[in-house]
Amino acid sequence: MSVFALGAVHSLADVENVSAQDDDTLTIALGTDMVTFDIHNHVNTSTEAIHINMFNYLFKRNVETGEIEMDLAESYEIIDDTSWEVTLKEGIPFHNGEILDSEDVKYTLERVSSDSTLLEHSNYAVIDEIEVIDDLTFIIHTETPDPALLNRLARIGSGILPVDYIEENGFDHFLSNPVGTGPYQYVNWIRDDRLELEKFDEYFGGDISEWENVTFRVIPENSTRVSELLTGGVDIAVNIPPSEWERVDDNNDTYLAQTDSNRAMMIFVRHTEGWPTADKAVREAMDLAIDNQAITDHLLGGAGTPTITRVSPGTFGFAEELSDTYNYDPERARELLAEAGYENGLDIKLHSPRGRYLQDAEIAQMIVGMWSQVGINAELEFHEWSNFVELRNAGNNEDAFILALGNSMFDAFNALDWYDYERFEGQIDFYNEELEELLADAAQNMDLEEREQQYIEAQHLIAEEVVHPVLHLESINMGVSERVDYTPTMDEMIYIHTITKK
């Protein structure tokens, strides 16, 4: 067990003494830092990948079968279309010693469902009330039928928080000294440098992990991350670029671990009146100018799948006919620009993160080059990840930005909610009445076969409107030390207990 105490602050020199070669410490190199400890105020998979080890959901998704299983919940019963009774497991401790009860669930889910300023609010707004029956039993009342409720309660925003601890100390204190029920507890966070966790000995699931301590190091530069892996400074490094795959795999002390992802890289554009990208002809020209296959072949080493839908295989509502295909016709792109009044060229700005996604900067640069061939002159502006998130959340983004989105719900609701007007008013401003009605109906349709067809129809409508040019589904490419055994999962979570010593 680490000697660090909950909430303690340590110097960089102290932290450096915890090496990746410490037999009981696992060190993981990330490309970007975690965003926040507010589980309700981010939509960031790499943040949830850390949170998943500190907080528990009522339910969890089995990464092998895709089935929804119990986590904090002992049992549940559907009373009617808008009422779900859930019973908690007994005696589950938080990291501060408090025992989980129904009031913690009520606080957690009603906070996110009632506060429209929280980024996860739209995914929980369907929850009307949590009715507490007793310490272990409660009823989730939804405003409308919600066929995806279990999926919803097994993802970002559903980690149960300790209400007494928060009410006694304040939420700001919680953000700097977070407390959950998970197998690991907080030790220290040096923003943009590292986050440290230690094993929670009283975890209700038992002693499920071989690692006493876990360090997440923030290393934005690909080359530096790879060097740290090869020299033993870290045990696992995320987002290994294709140019380094052979080097990692051929090294005696490391190997490359890969799998498919459900993360779609896209170009989000403004539909705000007066912006050139509000014109469908412009959006279609932007899309037709991009050779998706060239991006996956030359920048992703072939480990990516061109697509024109954000919904991925393995997700409820997937439209297979829109996957593994793309639109590319630069001559038609030039014609469309001329028809839109930009025969002499179009000037726009493209925002892009650097280091958050596999080859994100290189992809942005290649797209700018492709656009220039048809008369779209894009000023490319790179951002450090936290600044990029702040820019979008504040609605200060200009014509277009690159973003790659996963889907922790594995349901089309979560993917297609990004086309909801109200959620992104002032940032994207896309509105289509037919689509709004279709998605609203599908969200509460308890006939799963009919609901699936509604989501497929919605994807075709989105593709026809070229709402946002879609590029490809990413792959997951991790460099791993030979001292550990690790297989990444499609959901991109980093489940520490599944990483074992060799």
Structural class by secondary-structure content: alpha+beta
Cα shape: globular
Biggest sheet layout: 11 strands, mixed
User: Over all CA atoms, what is the radius of gyration?
Assistant: 23 Å
Q: Quote the distance from N terminus to C terminus.
A: 20 Å
Q: In terms of per-residue confidence, which ranges show pLDDT below 50 for 5 or more consecutive residues?
A: 1-19
Total helical segments: 16
Q: Give the proportion of residues in helices.
A: 25-40%
Topology, number of strands: 19
Average pLDDT: 93
- What fraction of the residues are assigned to beta strands by DSSP? 15-25%
Description:
- There is one protein chain.
- The protein is an alpha+beta fold.
- 28% of the residues lie in helices and 23% in strands.
- It has 16 helices and 19 strands.
- The protein has helices at 12-16, 45-51, 102-114, 149-152, 163-169, 171-176, 222-230, 245-250, 280-288, 292-299, 330-339, 360-372, 385-393, 412-416, 433-443, 448-465, and strands at residues 25-30, 59-61, 68-70, 73-80, 83-88, 127-132, 137-142, 184-190, 194-199, 213-218, 236-237, 254-269, 304-306, 346-353, 376-383, 400-405, 470-481, 484-485, 500-501.
- Strands 1, 8, 9, 10, 11, 12, 13, 14, 15, 16 and 17 form an 11-stranded mixed beta sheet that branches. It has a 4-stranded antiparallel beta sheet with strand order 4-5-7-6, covered by helices on one side.
- Strand 2 (59-61) and strand 3 form a beta hairpin.
- Helix 9 (280-288) runs antiparallel to helix 11 (330-339) and helix 15 runs antiparallel to helix 16.
- The longest helix is centred in the last third of the chain and has 18 residues, at 448-465.
- The relative contact order is 0.16.
